[in-house]
Amino acid sequence: MKTYDWIVVGAGIAGAALAYELVKKGYAVLLLEQQAIPQNATRYSYGGIAFWAGTTPLTKQLCAEGIALHQNLSQELDFDTEFRELDLLLTIPADTNPQEVAVSYTRFDIPPTLLSVKEACELEPLLNPNAIAGALTVKHGHIHPEKTAQAYTTAFLRAGGEMKIEQVINLYPHSLTPPPSDFLRFTEVQTTTETYYSANTVVCAGGLSRQLFQASNVSIKLYFTHAEMLETPPIDSIQLRTLVMPANFNRFQLETESSKNDSVWTQPDSEVVPPILDTGAIQFKDGSFRFGQISRALTNPFAQIDSTESEATIRQGLKEILPILGDLPGTWHRCLVSFSHDALPVVGRISGHEGIYAFSGFSNPLAIVPTLARRFANWVSGEKDEIILKLCPQRL
């Protein structure tokens, strides 16, 4: 019976990056992903890297390390992640005081610059000037998230890692004795078709992490939203110069409010707080757009959502801010986005469960996942890391 040093559950960018960093350290690693074509948060991400958005010494350091890593990642992985820097434009509603909004952003490591309506429309000509009182702008990193995850996975396999497309349904510590004279402790990972054994298992399943931990009788304070967006095919006739997002970003407030009471998340089919809309848009290098997003705090990860109504809501928001984009042909999608109550990721060993780790709950994933994956691999290899310790599940 084959065993592994590490089993990584989930092949979004978090799992793919972590699997790569672990196999680089010489570990025998198995990467498990439930879908051949993942439909996760990486797949439907805008691809933004908010390296400017650190607000504490910890997050500032992670963001700085993250952008430095991204700048050389395509070369390291021998795969184009489509990294670039572009202008982020944070729109301020017409009925809002721009100076007050600008003050609220002074806590960030690189505070955005306040623009007048005229300046904002010069930077992004597709904006509706009547819908805004101004905007904030700052340089923002951007990658193609799917290609970046693919880059990590390809490099992982090239380095000797193994990957299987199977859905994990349970995990728990298990005792094996590979040679009879040695007693080793392994985690048993059950999928819909096989059982695998590993000295350590790390869950990088994003919004499905909580469900998997609950199925395995592991208590952890991780939560998720249902994020909804529209995606278009490549369109050459329209060019969006910037990444457009609202300055008054509602998603983080929704995450804070919906995670105040952990017990409600054990109740099936509950809507913890009302849904919100954060109107935003990005155009990728191939000309395709992603628009969004609606966020819903529904405790059932497979809850039914009226896609027609959601699409109409997203399009209405677009028509107010970016009118020319509102009627572009596109397809509605949804995914789960994981988060924790304090907006920091949950990284480290689960107390009381030998060999089981979490690597999830990233509110600013693309900026910090690559550097935290590297730090995690170094930490489990024996290096001290105060940042990893500060992100442990026990802090919650």
TrEMBL record:
Keywords: Oxidoreductase
Pfam families reported for this sequence: DAO
Keyword Oxidoreductase: yes
Domain FAD dependent oxidoreductase: 5-379
GO molecular function: oxidoreductase activity
Top-rank lineage group of the source organism: Bacteria
EC assignment: 1.-.-.-
Keyword NAD: no
Protein name, per record: NAD(P)/FAD-dependent oxidoreductase
Organism name: Tolypothrix campylonemoides VB511288_2
